[in-house]
Description:
Elements: H1 12-39, H2 46-76, E1 83-84, E2 87-88, H3 92-96, H4 112-126, H5 130-140, H6 144-150, H7 159-169, H8 176-185, H9 194-208, H10 214-223, H11 228-237, H12 242-262, H13 276-281, H14 315-318
Antiparallel strand pairs: 1-2
Helix pairs in contact: 1-2, 4-7, 8-9, 9-12, 11-12
Amino acid sequence: xxxxxxxxxxxxxxxxxPLASADGATIHGVGERQEAEDETGGLSSPQVKxxxxxxxxxxxxxxxxxxxELTRRTNMATEIPTMTSGRTQPSTSSVVSFRLAEFDxxxxxxxxxEWLAVAxxxxxxxxxxxxxxxAKAGEALKGSAHHYYCNWRPVLRTWDExxxxxxxxxxxxxxxxxxxxxxxxxxSTDCESLSEYGIRKxxxxxxxxxxxPWNIRLSMVEYGLDHGETQAAIRMQQPGTDRELLKVLxxxxxxxxxxxxxxxxxxxxxxxxxxxxxxxxxxxxxxxFRCGQKGHHKANxxxxxxxxxxxxxxxxxxGKPKRALVLKR
Length: 329
């Protein structure tokens, strides 16, 4: 048995009782000697009283020290962790603290098989039980998938059965032709950044045909780029992995963002130096296309043209014209 365990030590009360009896006997013996001296008529000197007090104080201090030592040893006694299959059991708090990524079959562009594969890998690495893993997956599911989880009542409630039922309930709706079309036609202008384009392009190619050689994948990514400098950099550097390719794209993303910040903002000042009040008072420039006079446009011209009237007259110049009867010969 390990030292400090409850089975190897007696209780604190059992240890205190002998100490208390011993201290009581010592104090009782000192008191009897004092009474004997008083009965014989011998008055105790101040030195004798001082020795008696020092003895009592030292006994009390020793008792307190022993009580403190027994209490400390009792608190140090802890349970030895049990070992199973050569390793310790993982703590419950560290297992419960993980969280799966959310998945909505109506909004996510990847199938549920990929999401379940990631969750299964996490379950195997952390040695998580079936019940806890199913509960965590139910928290991460959204939309119709969460509704399906709430109504899921299987005969065997295991993780494998849960994955099979989800794949049957939410199959991949994208056909092989649609995957090939997406992998071939996706361009960088369809994404917000070059890094996002690279991730989506590689994922689309992988979904279309996972065993496609790397040089063909690289040429497809390069073909979809609408940025000449990035295309030239890929041809020169020839990245050999997905990570190296995404690193090149992220570097040019950073350069583009830096270039946008350094550009001077456009001025919002009015080009005209004339005050708005003066511009309103000034009349339009040029002459009227109808009457040939300055100060107004054709739309505001007050000239009245009749079919039988030969010469137009402007109201601003000649006043309101009078009707004249013109006879044709």
